[in-house]
Design a protein that fits this description.
With 153 residues, the chain is of the alpha+beta class. The protein has one domain (8-150): 2-Layer Sandwich (RNA Cap, Translation Initiation Factor Eif4e). Helix content is 28%, strand content 29%. It has four helices and seven strands; from the N terminus they run H-E-E-H-E-E-H-E-H-E-E. The longest helix is centred in the middle third of the chain and has 16 residues, at 60-75. It starts with 7 loop residues before the first helix and ends with a strand. The model is unreliable at 141-153 (pLDDT under 50).
Length: 153
C-alpha cells in the first residue's frame, strides 16, 4: 500500500492507522519517501544512507520510538537539509534496521552533518553505532567476460 500527503494533517490521517512496530510481521519494510524517490540505489545515485542495526533481543518499544522520532523529524523538516529523501524501517528475523536516505553529492561535510543531526534528533548516546552506505559504490557494475557483476560494498 502507498499513500501521498502534502500536509501534517494528511500525514496524521495515515499515521493513526500504522501498527506499532512490535506488532509488525518479520520481513516487512516500511518506507516514508519524497514523491519520486524509492529506497533503491538507482533512485538516488548521488546519495546514501545512514543506518542503525538493532539486534532481535533489543527492546521493540525503544526501536518503535526511534522510528517514530525519525519519521516525525522528516515530516517536520527538522534536519534543515533539502536533500533528505526518506526513511526505511526493515524488520528481519535477526535484526531490525532503520535507514535515513539523502542526497549528499559526495560532500563529506553534509554527510557528517546529517549523521550528527540524526544522533541528536533520535537522542542516541555515544554507544550507538551508525553505519553509512554510499549508493554510488553500491551500484558499481562491471562487465567481466560479457557478464555484468554487481559489486556490493
Amino acid at each position: 500500500m502507498s499513500a501521498e500527503f502534502n500536509t501534517l494533517e494528511d500525514f496524521f490521517k495515515y499515521y493513526v492507522y500504522l501498527k506499532a512496530t512490535p506488532e509488525i510481521e518479520r520481513n516487512t519494510d516500511l518506507g516514508l519517501f519524497k514523491v519520486g524517490y524509492q529506497p533503491l540505489w538507482e533512485s538516488c545515485p548521488d546519495g546514501g544512507c545512514w543506518f542503525i542495526r538493532f539486534k532481535k533481543n533489543e527492546d521493540p518499544v525503544d526501536i518503535d520510538l526511534y522510528w517514530e522520532k525519525l519519521i516525525f523529524a522528516l515530516v517536520g523538516e527538522q534536519f534543515d537539509e533539502p536533500n533528505m529523501l526518506g526513511a526505511v524501517f526493515s524488520i528481519r528475523g535477526r535484526e531490525t534496521i532503520l535507514e535515513l536516505w539523502f542526497n549528499f553529492f559526495k560532500i563529506e561535510k553534509m554527510k557528517d552533518s546529517v549523521a550528527q543531526k540524526l544522533k541528536y534528533l533520535l537522542q542516541l548516546d555515544e554507544n550507538f553505532t551508525i553505519y553509512f552506505k554510499d549508493n554510488e559504490r553500491s551500484l558499481q557494475v562491471k562487465l567481466i567476460n560479457n557478464v555484468y557483476r554487481i559489486n556490493l560494498h
